[in-house]
Amino acid sequence: MFGLHQLRCFVAVADHLHFGQAASQLNMTQPPLSRQIQLLEREIGVPLFDRTSRSVRLTPAGRVFLPEAKRILRLSESAMKWTRRVWRGEAGTLRIGFTAASGYGMLPGLIRQLRGIMPNVDLVLREMVTRLQIEALDSGVLDLGFMRPSVDLRRFAVREHATEAMVVALPAGEATTAPPALPVSDLQDRPFIMYSPDNALYFHDLVTALLDEHQVQPKVVEQVGQIHSMLALVDAGFGAALVPETAARLHFPAVAFRPLADGASPPVRLNAVWRDENDNPALARFLAQAGLDQVGT
Amino acid sequence: MFGLHQLRCFVAVADHLHFGQAASQLNMTQPPLSRQIQLLEREIGVPLFDRTSRSVRLTPAGRVFLPEAKRILRLSESAMKWTRRVWRGEAGTLRIGFTAASGYGMLPGLIRQLRGIMPNVDLVLREMVTRLQIEALDSGVLDLGFMRPSVDLRRFAVREHATEAMVVALPAGEATTAPPALPVSDLQDRPFIMYSPDNALYFHDLVTALLDEHQVQPKVVEQVGQIHSMLALVDAGFGAALVPETAARLHFPAVAFRPLADGASPPVRLNAVWRDENDNPALARFLAQAGLDQVGT
DNA sequence: TTGATCGATGCGTGGATCGGATCGATGTTC
DNA sequence: GAACATCGATCCGATCCACGCATCGATCAA
After folding, report:
1. Which CATH architecture has domain A92-163+269-289?
2. Each residue of A195-207: pLDDT tens digit?
3. Under CATH, which architecture does the B4-87 domain have?
4. Which residue on chain A is closest to B80 by alpha carbon?
5. Which of A28, A230, B14, B225 would bridge B196 by S-S if both were Cys, CB 3.0 to 4.6 A apart?
6. How far apart are CA B146 and CA B128, in angstroms?
């Protein structure tokens, strides 16, 4: 098969229709250029030029081959440039997982930030619970995950990405008689919607610890795994719930939000998690730009 | 710049993820294959494989480069095959000129014939008068022309492609009283539409010679260069005209056609004309298939 | 007829690529 | 856990290829 160098020789001769000028453009002398053209013609099995000692003309076959040769050379250049950009993290794909709750708050800003840092990187965004994100990071399906703290994160690189407070979600009817900020004790004996320990272990433990600490025992009327299910139940008047404050962005008509009094809320943590051995340069570039690439746990 | 051989090496390794197997597929040994991959990586400036002594994996940059490399190789193959087909006359472009009058009769059949012989050859068909066709053949704009005899054809290869008879075109009103076949003498003193010596020299000379031979002098009411203009005038009742019989395919409602009696019509000749030095293989292929490629004037 | 131009060809050299042998690292097996 | 097998990297000598220089042969101009 012919080589790219022969294609460059061919294009130069076809453009100049003059071996000497083409050779000097290619920084070589005329004899090897003639040789390369002959080799190319022998390889294809077709004469590409009609040449006398006084004139050089393209044959019809040469006229057909010329744009193909230029296309191949153009593709080779662009393949190289594109690959280099991927290597520098300026192009490529970044696959990101996030929990449903984190999507309400930080996702739009994160996407804006990524678009600003790496406008040519394709983003693949998948909502997954923490456990599934861990598996996906392991198998290489995800480059980066935004998830709740978990004991299984020890083999990964973890940075705290955001913290927020919990707020009380109340049925609108009960909110009219409630003070601007609620002490935890206000939940005592209230109808209360709790997190499921199966699908929302982190929030379950967080709320359980908060209630235990204040020795408060609400009347648990339901256990659910997803925050929007929880708010739907509040909206229907089944009871109150504790949700991260960014969940207030979900506009349920019959739900009112009240902060906890005295800064009683524990911080709800969201971690950025990735594999240290991940070789996606787009990930490295994002971590560097976001200041997350220092060594640590 | 990298070479196509390096791309083939890269694709083989990427497909097998194993240097030894890739090398045997490429009919080479493992050491030079390792070298080629290293050279390619150095050329691009990007590692394409993550390799330990136990495993070979593509880097993200390599994953991007792989489809590009395959595309370049595919394009190179197809460019070579396509160029070979053009060389054999099985593909490419054939530019054909024809006079307006010849288009009425032989063009559809010619196109069918060409499609049968060379289904992958693009046909460019241009209606041009004989003089313009000669110039176009000279400058290489046309490969083949269908034109009337002319003294300027000596430097070209010429074959008689078709002959036909002249017929009389009569206004429909006059046709009812005319016999089935008209002697030339019938034109004596008739209103008659003549060919212009500027734009239709061949027909002008042909008709003039015919009339002179029979010592007939019609009343020339108009001189025009195009046959459809001529029939339009007959249709409008201005007079009679002599036209090639295939012109009867132009359906003018008030025009009737009558043959000349006694085979008095001179043959109207149509030549196929081309440059002997023309190197378009599609032309050579057509000439060979049509049996026109024997030597001669 | 002479000289200039231009692509093709002969030839010697230097660099690139090849295959064989071997190294070093890693995972497997008993 | 020590011997073994596997696999990519590296070293080295032989070969091949592409380069430049010199020259040839054909063509066109003066």
Report:
1. 3-Layer(aba) Sandwich (3.40)
2. 999 888 899 999 9
3. Orthogonal Bundle (1.10)
4. A44
5. B225
6. 9
Strand D bases, protein C-beta under 7 A: 6-12, 18-22, 25-28
* H or E, element range at B57: strand B56-58
Closest-CA distance of chain A to residue B30, Å: 21
Query: Protein A60 CA to nucleic acid C29 C1', in Å?
Result: 66
Phi, psi values for residue B276, rounded to 5°: -65, -30
A181 CB below 7 A from strand D atoms: no
State the architecture of B166-266 in CATH terms. 3-Layer(aba) Sandwich (3.40)
Q: Encoding tokens for residue A144?
A: 């980066």
Minimum distance, in Å, between the CA of residue B281 and any CA atom of chain A: 8
What pLDDT does A268 receive? 94
Q: Is the CB of B53 under 7 A from strand D?
A: yes
The tokens 């709320």 sit on which residue?
Answer: A207
- pLDDT (tens digit, 9 = 90+) per residue, B220-263? 999 999 899 999 999 999 999 999 999 988 889 999 999 998 77
A39 CB contact with strand D at below 7 Å: yes
Long-range (24+ apart) CB contacts under 8 A made by A26-34 are: A33/A9
Residue-wise pLDDT tens digits, A162-180? 899 999 999 998 888 888 8
Strand partners of residue B58: B49
Count, residues in chain A: 297
> B91 and A64: CB-CB below 8 Å?
yes
